[in-house]
Amino acid sequence: MKEALLLHSTVLRNIASLFLFGILIIILQTNHYLLMSVWGICAWLFFFNKSMRFFILTTTAFGIGFFLYGYVNSHWITHLNPEGLLIILNRLSLIFLILPLTAISLIYKLPFMRYWQSPQWGELVRVPFILSGFHHTKVSVFLSIAMMINLIAFMPFIVNNGWAYIQEIWWFMLIFSIINSVLEEIIWRGMLLSRFSEHFGNRWAIMITSIGFGLQHYSLGFSWGGCLVFTLGGLFFGAITVKSKSIIPAVIWHMSINALMVLSGMIVK
């Protein structure tokens, strides 16, 4: 009976944490200051629960970083031209999210991230969802097939843009895909996944970070429906990070998708 109650309490805590994190990201992007006050009161109440304290501190640090990131992009660089430069500086400003999370790691004497190591390419994952599926394959094989599927999906749009467009945009493609994928993966599958895995376990940590990863794309001009697609991508990135014990496969996968998005005209046209 006690074990059942404990499990129920843990699940409720994890669900509450997922909603708190997701709602914070929505509020920060929609500038609802009244809702922010309500969120702050809820976070303050949860802070008195010892099992939630570190999560609240980590989420607050992330919120501060996201606010700084949003302020920089709405006040400092919004009028810059050309569009490519504006996008690159927007991605570089993700550093403002990393700084408060780094401070949390230093204060609590925790490693910067758990997944900063060589990937275990031979680790078995399940197909099609990495953590669940009907077939087993190696991380290296799964990643190769996934990237090939992505290429096939984007190829009609790339071909439609033509070779001249590729010649014009290739430099931006390289810079954007490297900066964006590395910084985003450090934040979501590096720092946040590490902190939340320590607190919630791998599966819940993947869910929470994936929701956040998807929702934050609203500030980049995507619809809420589009954010759900990025959430799905976050689930795959998080799962392959946990199974390979490294962010490198997710960085490679993320980088390839970013490059394809640029070549297809989805990022800058």
From TrEMBL:
Its Gene Ontology biological processes? CAAX-box protein maturation
The molecular function terms in GO held by this entry are:
endopeptidase activity; metallopeptidase activity
Q: Mind telling me which Pfam families this protein's record contains?
A: Rce1-like
Domain named CAAX prenyl protease 2/Lysostaphin resistance protein A-like: which ranges?
A: 168-260
Keyword Protease set for record? yes
Q: Which UniProt keywords apply?
A: Hydrolase, Membrane, Metalloprotease, Protease, Transmembrane, Transmembrane helix
Transmembrane residue ranges: 20-47, 54-72, 84-108, 141-163, 169-188, 222-240, 247-268
Q: What is this protein called?
A: CPBP family intramembrane metalloprotease
